[in-house]
Design a protein that fits this description.
With 465 residues, the protein is an alpha+beta fold. The chain has four helices and 32 strands.
């Protein structure tokens, strides 16, 4: 009863006590967000989350977490700051995606990429949300990111508002020491024992391929996972969640290596009617990755990760070239046995078409355009005359409808009286030339008169001896 009274009093204070009088929230905010863009063929370039300490004093990050909700509405924990970690006063903390080409330029890494339209991204302290930002284009959120116009969502601390900005660069240099990792060898014996007993982590592990539609035996089914981190990881304690049941992973997986998880202890639906979902769960219960394979799976074909689009979203495709334990290869059609080729319209193997040219039909036969086969033509002897409006086809000797208005019996060029028109045109040109000549004489009459006088005097003047 006493605990209930304390909780009730706290809830009452949140409702009635002015915000200025409440306990001050930690001075940590989300400063910038960028989902990353494809630049020179490299996806997730520039992806970042930047936090800022508004206080002039160093701040403990213990109890802080970042949660992200994707475009499908799935909420996951991007990062949980460890006990003993700190951020300097009035400094920024830069986080980047582990698979980003900029991953080396960061204080910390996370493994789930941000989408071009998603959110909210939430900063949580002791299970209480203290800051958030979303960018799904709705009325309550910012506009979506555009792949054609790279921007970064940046918070203006003076107005406490977010805006899309171009050319933003985070405040980070390799020599900067804003983030302090948990100190080593500071835990007591009990804490050390607890740390040793803590479950292992599988952050950075992801699904890359799945084969469900086997040809002959269920043993052909497999699930492939890939360690994209720079370090080996202990898998014990991590699981795959499928149809509300957990299936364990065991062993150690080296950096850049693949893990093939067989399905001896369960069975994947060969070709689900809608979709089936597999979820990779970390040893501490966090959701690391999901694989959703849809209806339309093909026999002896796998469902494989073939890269990422410009917004950083994974591209999964059905391939007829399964590669368990190796890099994925896309093959659109099945491989056909000798003597057969693929029919691209149906995806089936058919007999190889002959390369010999089609021979002409023998005399008295014609090729049926519907079947491509030679068919005997009817002889004209003893045939009943075609009825009105029909004529005999000379190739097949069958009656066919006479096509009207073909123009075959009529001149293609109409008679237009060309000689009369040519004569009229010549006279018209002569009249126009006469009018032009008369106009020139009238226009230069004075000059012509002067020239005529000079010429007349010269003709009258006798030549000198």
């Amino acid at each position: 009863m006493k605990n209930f009274a304390i909780i009730a009093a706290f809830a009452f204070s949140l409702v009635l006590v002015p915000s200025a009088a409440r306990a001050t929230e930690p001075p940590l905010i989300i400063k910038a967000v960028n989902p990353g863009y494809t630049v020179n063929g490299q996806a997730n370039t520039g992806e970042l989350i930047e936090l800022q300490n508004l206080s002039s004093s160093s701040l403990s990050l213990a109890g802080f977490s970042l949660y992200y909700t994707n475009s499908s509405g799935n909420r996951s924990n991007l990062i949980e700051f460890p006990e003993g970690s700190r951020i300097s006063g009035e400094a920024s903390l830069l986080l980047r995606l582990a698979s980003s080409p900029d991953m080396a330029n960061a204080d910390l890494l996370y493994t789930k990429t941000l989408a071009m339209a998603a959110g909210p991204l939430e900063l949580v302290y002791l299970d209480q949300k203290i800051d958030s930002v979303c960018w799904d284009g709705s009325e309550a959120c910012l506009a979506k990111f555009s792949k054609n116009n790279p921007t970064t969502i940046v918070r203006e601390t003076s107005t406490n508002t977010y805006t899309h900005q171009t050319g933003y660069e985070p405040d980070w240099t390799p020599a900067r020491s804003a983030y302090s990792a948990p100190p080593a060898n500071t835990t007591d014996a009990s804490e050390s024992a607890a740390a040793e007993a803590a479950p292992s982590k599988c952050k950075g592990l992801q699904f890359t391929e799945l084969l469900s539609y086997y040809d002959e035996a269920k043993s052909e089914q497999f699930i492939e996972l890939f360690n994209g981190t720079d370090e080996s990881m202990e898998l014990t304690g991590c699981t795959i969640l499928y149809k509300k049941k957990f299936y364990p992973l065991i062993g150690t997986l080296g950096s850049g290596d693949y893990l093939i998880r067989d399905t001896n202890d369960f069975t994947l639906t060969k070709n689900p009617t809608s979709t089936n979902i597999l979820t990779l769960i970390d040893a501490n219960g966090d959701e690391l990755d999901t694989l959703t394979y849809p209806h339309g799976q093909k026999k002896s074909a796998s469902y494989a990760l073939m890269g990422y689009d410009v917004s950083g979203q994974p591209i999964w495709q059905i391939t007829y070239h399964p590669t368990p334990g190796a890099a994925n290869i896309y093959q659109e059609f099945r491989s056909c046995p000798a003597g057969k080729v693929i029919n691209e319209a149906t995806g089936n193997c058919v007999k190889a078409a002959t390369l010999e040219p089609i021979k002409d039909c023998p005399a008295g036969k014609y090729r049926n355009p519907a079947t491509g086969r030679c068919k005997s033509a009817e002889t004209s002897s003893g045939l009943t005359p075609c009825k009105a409006g029909y004529e005999r086809n000379p190739e097949t000797n069958r009656c066919r409808k006479i096509k009207s208005n073909t123009g075959a019996d009529f001149a293609l060029v109409p008679e237009t009286g060309g000689e009369n028109q040519s004569f009229t045109a010549i006279w018209a040109l002569a009249v126009l030339a006469g009018i032009g000549f008369a106009y020139l004489i009238f226009q230069y009459r004075r000059e012509l008169k002067t020239i005529a006088r000079k010429l007349f005097r010269r003709l009258k003047t006798p030549p000198r001896n």
